[in-house]
Amino acid sequence: MSNAISVSHGEFGRAAIYELDNTIITHAHREGHLIFYIRGADARMEVGNEVAHVSHSFGAAVSPWEPHSFHLPAGQRQLCLVLYIKPLWFLQNCASSEFALKFGSPLLAMTPEITDFVRRLTALLLDNEDHDQFDELLFGLAKASFDQSWERSHTECRKDIFLRYNDFRVRRAVRIIQDYVGETMEMEELARLVGLSRPHFFKLFKQNIGVTPNVYINTLRSERAIDFLLTGKKTITDIAFDLGFSSQASFTRFFSSNVGIAPSDYRRVAHVNRTSFPIM
Prior knowledge:
Elements: E1 3-10, E2 13-20, E3 24-27, E4 32-40, E5 43-47, E6 50-54, E7 58-62, E8 68-71, E9 78-85, H1 87-92, E10 107-109, H2 112-127, H3 134-151, H4 168-179, H5 187-193, H6 198-209, H7 213-231, H8 236-242, H9 248-259, H10 263-269, E11 270-272
Parallel strand pairs: 1-11
Antiparallel strand pairs: 1-2, 2-9, 3-8, 4-7, 4-9, 5-6, 5-8, 7-10
Helix pairs in contact: 2-3, 5-6, 7-10, 8-9
């Protein structure tokens, strides 16, 4: 069974130490996502159409809304540092970054600089206390990872991959999904509401957002669940029903498959980091 060792939420997004022993299915986040090895077995990640490894030698970088999955050898475990970094926070603190955490490559070499950032952040998370240096260290790790990802990238022009989210029908579909995220949603009905056939809707949605409508909906449900677990007093059963699940068990399976950790375990260790890293 996978476990959450520490989870910290803040203006930056969230940072966690997870001990994982199971596959995390294809999913996405609105944040930039970084994964680094601490100990245990090596893991493999499928990031878009590429493969990255999380090991002594490599970490992985995932851009916002980029579909990805996590895989371990059967019966093996890995302790890892996992970061979810808000693009706007990164952009506001990084004047040289015009593309807000779109990584050039998913594969990150564990340079001495990155290794040191990982070691220091891991130590602070294991202390489970707020620390004035936490946000600054996290930003340093994100910036070093971002810069390296473009050094390793074979993409000649960054701008071509940011021409998304332009179709008005997709924007309308996103608004509908956000308004009804806790309700059962038939894809045929959603496609009809925006004036498209189901196949055309799926194709256009993925072209604009980067993920399928189903993955997008699962992302929003996961985010809403995390908000409830962190800030509310609702029981996990109530959260399950509010998000449209038929039972606590089905919600727990969903959360574990998409986040990697059971909701009760996440609630047990998660806390809000009250430190504030100055925005430049």
